[in-house]
Amino acid sequence: MIPPRGGVRKGWQEGHVVVAPDKFRGSLTAPEVAAHLAAGLRAARPDVPVVTVPVADGGEGTVAALVASGYSGLQTNVTGPVGNPVVASFAMRSDQTAVIELAEASGLRRLPGRASATTAMTATSVGTGQLIRTAVMRGARRVVLGLGGSACTDGGAGMLTALGAKLLDGYGRPLPPGGAALRRLARIDTSEMLRVPVVVASDVDNPLLGQRGAAQIFGPQKGAGPREIEALEAGLARFSEIARRELGVDEADARGAGAAGGVGFAALAFLGAAVRPGIEIILEQLDFARVLAGARLVITGEGSLDEQTLNGKAPVGVAREAWRAEVPVIAVSGRRTIDRDLLRRFGIDNAYALTDIEPDPHMCISHAGPLLEQLAHSLAVVHLDRPLTRTT
């Protein structure tokens, strides 16, 4: 949480407005949310400069947010989570940093049908490894890997094979894709594996195994039932055991090892990755501190302001950076289930939801763009003519 600050926040009287929202899931991308908010602000106060900086927390929508802010967007053909062909995007900038979003190649949204017990057992992260390899071939010397929304529970085995590792059974044969096959793992050969510095962007702190591990916590949302969870847990445990025995790596209990079905484990154990909060990394990539200089107000938000928002999601990360710059923050959302007093403890001075002006949640989803413009118009009238204050 952020320490309280009394009095008027510096910067409200003049300067630009920074619009830095995350996506409204199921409705609008982060760049679309930012564009609608900016349109409403400009309609009300055309004299006030507005700077749009769509943000993300490392999960779905991260690449789109960075491309909207000036990164180069590149595409390549990769293998989807169940072997289906996928055209996936990644982002690069001139300093040879590539930002790769696992959901682009290996996400639930890339399944050709619904998640099921079968896909839970066989889904692979190989497409994510192919994205990393392609980025390196195109000049990347550092990779930011955003984890979230995965279809796989393979411990990152598929990603490693795409980078050149060999995961073999007792007969020296390559394992088939998926987490269940890891139960037959006997040997790991990384002698020809491509290595590149990796930073993992994730807010998940789960370990690889156990009651809070990748299979038991995240397996059900990927179609796994009790039998599948047991098989996937056994496969991940075997993977961890062989990695420790043959390579001397022991990261199963590390913070974030269970992220994205255990892809966090592979990044930590085999690529030497560091895990950091996703929004923190993305704001660094966007040079957000520079954008805040001289700002009078920040407007952030996401589809739902709820208890999960407080666990390091994008609005709280934006508010933390704005607090350091002494710029006041307003959050907007489709709906809000936490009170304003609690949000203020996390640096958000005020919060509004589309349900404040349209009680029908279905309308809020289907007409989110016009409603955001209407809400932004009202916010400009109220907040750009007088200061926001915070009481201690």
From TrEMBL:
Pfam families reported for this sequence: Gly_kinase
Protein keywords: Kinase, Transferase
Root EC class: transferase
GO biological process: organic acid phosphorylation
One annotated GO molecular function: glycerate kinase activity
InterPro entries tied to this protein: Glyc_kinase_flavodox-like_fold (IPR018193), Glycerate_kinase (IPR004381), Glycerate_kinase_RE-like (IPR018197), Glycerate_kinase_sf (IPR036129)
EC number: 2.7.1.-
PANTHER family for the chain: GLYCERATE KINASE
Similarity comment: Belongs to the glycerate kinase type-1 family.
Name by which UniProt lists this protein: Glycerate kinase
Species name: Nocardia terrae
Lineage: Bacteria, Bacillati, Actinomycetota, Actinomycetes, Mycobacteriales
